[in-house]
Amino acid sequence: MYKFISRKILELHSKQAPVTGIGLFRILYGLITLQEIAFLLYFNHLIFDPIPYIDVEFPMIPFFLCLWAVVAVFVTIGYRYQFAATCNYIIWIIFVNFTPMQRDFDGGFDLFMIGAGFFLLFMPGDRAFSIDSLRRKLSTPFTHYSTYPRPTVSTLAYILPIAICLGFLYFDSAIHKMFAEHWRNGLGTWLPATQPYYVSAIDMSCLLNNKALQNFLGYTILVFQFTFIFFFTRRQLRVVYLLIGLGLHLGITLSFNIYPFGLGMLSFYTLLIPFKWWRCIGQLVTAKKPSLTVFYDQLCPLCNRTVLILNHFDIFSRIDFKSAQEYAAQYPALACINNETLLTDLYALDDQNRIYSGVDTYARIFIKMGYLLPIGVILRIPGIHQLALKKYRSIADTRNRIPCTSDCLVPQVLPDNTLYHQFFENAASLRPNAFSRKLTKLLLALLILQLNSSIHYGLIYRLSTDRSQNPISQASNAVLMVSQTFLGITPHALYLHDHFAGYDHILAITYTDQNGAEHWLPFVNEEGRLLAPNWGRVHSMWANIAVTPNIDNKRLHKFIMKVTAFWGQKIGLNLDKVVFNIKLKKISAPSYWVYDQLQKNLSSSWTTIGSAKWADNRISYDLPDNINQL
Fold first, then answer.
1. Residue 405: pLDDT above 90?
2. Which key words tag this protein in UniProt (predicted)?
């Protein structure tokens, strides 16, 4: 096995692939991180305060979240990529392990994002759609953009993250699913989609009421997850796994209220898209010929840098930049402009021989780029156009022109300090066999860490009665703690029988105002759905920790306190002057198919089982001692 993996690594490393998919993956990862930071900022007091708005234990949390947002923006745009990716990885670990995020508000994808962030450290994420790639070009401004070759990377940069972050996850999840009766019955997708707490606002009843379809989906997912790690690299099956995976996680994103997990998994599928597709997409979206030709002063550093910047963002290749000194004489339409005047501005010529100069050239460039059209339109608005023209003239008329020798036109090799370049390119090219052996050992170590989790929690934990005193079990837990913290390796036993067995009741909160009128708190609605934006990790807090098949009153009291204090403040309630009513409704979570089960659960009636009352920043409860028996 060792020799096979080592040989396969050398084979894959020798194959080059477009870097497009990795660039898009970096952008999606950064955007998903940004939306989660925005979510944390909105629910800052609910998640981090011991008592929301009343006992604020971490007043600097918003500041650090904003710093994290800056780092996430850097990751998204690919600016100082290695530094930003490292900071983002460390911040995920700190927030997950040193705040209530993981203990009480597990979003279901924090550890997945940590694992993905770890691999981003070693991926060439700065070589496509990034500011870093532009910075490298700007360091040699007299090198024309057309002389830079299209960047390529080793296929290992695609295969390894998919195999470990998706392949290992799927196989581990499939092991756990085999112990769940509803999964064995082919109802793995059906059961959670019939539970009010878990569904999104989209009504999927027409799909849920088709038993044959649900069985097909359930068994297809089992086969998909068991076989993914073994066959996803095969060219004939790659598209099959791509389409099934996209359908699976798009379905999760749309039908469940754990959309961050669905989006995180979807982002990885940019790495599974066949390389040939990227080349075909590139040919499809790029212009067959430029629709605008721009002439610039080749001896002006500012003009050269401007051209490099504009070309970098011309992703559809609709603009052609040419040296006025070399090419202007070849265009009869420019004959009316003398050579001296031609070098004072950026001039442009469109496909209808219309001439533009100065600010009008920039406006036309943005319009022709397509996706930047709004900027071009804004530049043409009276008033804004005059201000832009004044600023343009102050810069253009004071720029410096320097002579350029033949040496400055030769592309220069710029230093690359990324971990990918140091390990996968430098080290691999100098000593390929040593590189292959080291990487094989690392992969085997990761495999052992994953097997420790899968075997211990997927098999031994479920089959053994003595789980805590065994020294091997204790050692396994210690290893898992380390691998979970830094690599995101964790059991993926999501929504199984041990979660839904006995899940026959759900709770909601209303409040009675001073006039005796009852209102629903904007948390759980009359149907039992968790309302947006109470999804993701807030959903996990209420549906997986506060309300379970065996409700713990201490935990329930804690989260009733948090929810009422947070939403009471959000909607402007005087907590001392309202009474919060705790309501219960009976639902069913069968492991066999039942027609229209979702609507039955949504339409069942509520019963008021108790209340909660605030007075002088303290809350008191009037609830039954054992809600589970109601």
1. no
2. Membrane, Transmembrane, Transmembrane helix
